[in-house]
What does this fold into?
Amino acid sequence: TPMNAVLGFTTLLAKDAENPVKVREYTGKITASGQHLLSLINDILDVSKIESGKVVLSLEKFALSDVISSVDTIIQPMARAKGQEFRLEVSGIRHEYLIGDETRINQILINLLSNAVKYTQEGGHIQLRMLGLKQRSSQYEHIRIEVEDDGYGMTPEYLETIFDAFTRAENSTTNKVQGTGLGMAITKSIVELMGGTIEVTSQVDQGSLFRVELELHIHE
It folds into this structure.
């Protein structure tokens, strides 16, 4: 679909090259379609790397506050654009510096939160909670990530396949939202690659709650 849009608008661009208003409109649409196409390609590449066992985690020191700050910077404007309230809560985490793949942890959070924004109506509420749980080992910080919304929710049938590749909820509301149906499959694979767990509870028209648990090595 986005490739058709790119080709269609470039054809129109050639036809209306002398009209600056049309040129700006078409280039804006080409840019948006190009970005959508790029995100689809990245998802497909990610899935193929995961399925062939070629994803390697980059374990380095990072600050949890940096992750939270960068996620807030990305999600807050997305929520504001839909008149939603995005709240963030951090409690019980004992160590600021941890060892892990910061980029992939970011990816988990952005996937869950951008989905929450997409599948929550205008004026809805989204919350990210990062909670420190009882440590199972003195060397690891045990963290629970919760992403909760009061959006459209999901049927019990769809919940059974949500983490499968290329599956999407099919109804008149969700069909308006762009996507490959790969985001949750990728998220689950990354969580499991980190030795963590992910689960979801949801009710139609009441919202969804995703819960991820990770154990991250504490930086001395």
Summary: The mean pLDDT is 90. The radius of gyration is 19 Å. Residues 19 and 141 are 59 Å apart (CA to CA).
